[in-house]
Amino acid sequence: MASSMPPPPTSDPPPPPPLQSGSTSEAFGQFTFTGLPPGLFSAKPTAPQRTSSPATQSTNDAPGPATSPSSYKLSASAYGPQIQLRPPASAPPSQWQPPGPAGFGTMPPLVPPSLGGHVHLQAQSGQRSFEGKLQFQKTPEVKPQPGQPAQAAVVPTGETRLQIALDYGTTYTGVAYLPVSSSKLKQRGLEEFTEDIKVITAWPPKEEQEKVPSQLSYSVTPKGCEQYGYDIDDNSLVLKKTKIQLEAMGSRLDELRTLSELLKELRDLDLSEEEVIENGIPEHLAKEPEEIVKDYLDEIAEKTEKVINSDLGRHVLSNVAIDMVVTHPAIWSDRALNSTYRAVRAAFNHDLFPNLENISFVPEPVACAHFTLREAWKNNRVRFRKNDCFIVVDAGGGTVDLACYKVVDIDYNKKEMKLDQVGNPLGATCGSTCVDDDFEAFAAYQLGEKAWQQLTEGTKHAAGGHTVMSPTLRGIQEKFQVMKHSYEGKESGLTAPIYLPKSFAITEEMKGVSNGALSITPADLKKMFDRSVNKTVYLIQQAVTQIKLGEELPVKTIFLSGGFAQNKYLIQRVKEFCTKQKIALEQGDGWAAVARGAIIKSLGIYTEKPKYVLSSPRHYGIKVRRPFASYENHARSDIDVDPHGIQWATDQIRWFIQKGDAILPNKPTVVKHELHFSMNANDFPITQSQNKRGGRGVPQQPPAVFRDVVFLSSSRDKAPTAMSVVKEESEQMYTLKVNLTDVPQAHIVPVETGNKQQGRQLKFHVVVEIQLLDEVTVSIKSGETTLASKKIDLE
């Protein structure tokens, strides 16, 4: 029975969507889709054939050189279009197998493969039809250089790549993205192409904003909120300023203070059945700042994945290579960069972004500068000339960062401008959150410290080094934000009172409280701003001086950008400074200037592209001994007792560099660890020979006394902590021998044990230094003397 044909459409079919391009790379070449929607087709070579001759085949039966594949597998996408193939003239039509019901078809290898070829394709989907060609082009095989790490950044070679920028800020976070097609790039140019940069603006629950608050809560949510950003339940404990805490923990005193707070909090923690059922257990007490940042970025990554899938299509993230650029404050330690990198890698993981190949870092003021300057250039707000110098101020929530630039070349006809950065970026933790902190200090003083603690009860869960806002403090801060954002710097007039909760008991001792509200005068408000604003103006003065002394040129323009730069009082103070210095002041464009500018920087507009960050392929550390602790499962057989009677667990491992740590471009990762060797003074040959002199009063050369330092690396995801579980297939060991007689006398310290039988001890102080860049270097030093060293390939 013949099938009936579908009736012709009653009206003209709708026009097809804009044709785009895409590509996929294989071992034998590159397939380029021309004039076809991306993701509609894919092509892969089937199992390749290899040739080898008995004369050249090795004894381990290694395969010979690869030849062309036996066929190419064409597959239709999930959209289910019907595919018709027309082979090139170089191949007989009888050799072509069209797609079957499952949507797959094959074609023989192009003849000859080195000349390339193409296949005409037609696709029909409903009333829309697409036509184009599948172009095959031979590409050279890229071999890794000797000693190149397996985790080296992938060099972009595909037709299309996706750029993602993450601006994780102290108070707000922004994400921008841009698909980049090399063919489109040639047609439109890099400058025009950046008009297509998109910023994520849809945040839960229903906020249309270019940024989302950098806030997270682990509290239970009866309302079913997302518990991050704008969508946090009213009665939740909210973590804030976690980004700054990546940098905050520095000294041992800080660590001890945090531990003391945590122990007190655990002691006071209410873990009754009713409390746990009602509010859960505060998870953040057991988390490091890096873990909390990762948990927050998990939410950002999932939202980013959903938006890109919805906007560009679900095929993009699984088929297009991704480059990601992450911004950071101008002053940001290597430790904080590493924690940021690890958190980003964990959140934007392979499950969500399977083709994320490269991550690079860009300072926030540099990213902000590239967008701000581009907008000024495009809109002709500033007439740049060669040797003009200017400063971009990114005034954000947590930090204020500055970058200085000079125009080294400019061509208005070609719309090209080359910039050089002058000096180093400047910055300080003096953003708008400093005003919030000073408001809380003011309120605590007015109400009394004890009353303020009662009012903000719940912030006790800030123990463990974290800053947490209770629901009450959130409400008070939200009221203050309205006042803060509208402040213009006037020292007269009225300000709105901040009403305190009705349940709060007001006493006569409290200052500035009337009718249940905390009164704030304009003079009070100015004091809250002064610390932040004064520091910002001081940083600008530093930047101006840096340009004048370094370049011997005046500053032409200061660009003021960032969320805090919208404050009228800050604008007024910076304007006063610029007027005195005869410098023009320009307002920056856009709340998301940093995210957009990071995309521009990653494309190399006006400047070179940022270099990619690599990942440490292994853990690196040394064998150590630790104070014995039964709860750490130290074996009794590994216990050693020193002359002071302290028990030590021997044969332990301490890892200083973790697998997955960031290897920053052109900057070695350096870790130093102090240790000492002890021995009885009477047994040390230098001591023995002090009174034994050879001929002519020359001291005898003492015999060498060696001690071993065992250096280890591990490829496991979770590295072992004891030598007893080291495995040959995953761990590598290297022994460095240290001659104690080479230790300078200044680094040998006598120690009295108090035990006559054991006598006096000598401590030999040395430093283990591990450097990681293109290779691993471990050195044992004492003062300026290198006692032993070893270089190891980065694998």
TrEMBL record:
<feature type="compositionally biased region" description="Polar residues">
    <location>
        <begin position="48"/>
        <end position="74"/>
    </location>
</feature>
<feature type="region of interest" description="Disordered">
    <location>
        <begin position="1"/>
        <end position="130"/>
    </location>
</feature>
<feature type="compositionally biased region" description="Pro residues">
    <location>
        <begin position="1"/>
        <end position="19"/>
    </location>
</feature>
<feature type="compositionally biased region" description="Pro residues">
    <location>
        <begin position="89"/>
        <end position="101"/>
    </location>
</feature>
<dbReference type="InterPro" id="IPR043129">
    <property type="entry name" value="ATPase_NBD"/>
</dbReference>
<protein>
    <submittedName>
        <fullName>Heat shock protein family 70 protein</fullName>
    </submittedName>
</protein>
<keyword id="KW-0346">Stress response</keyword>
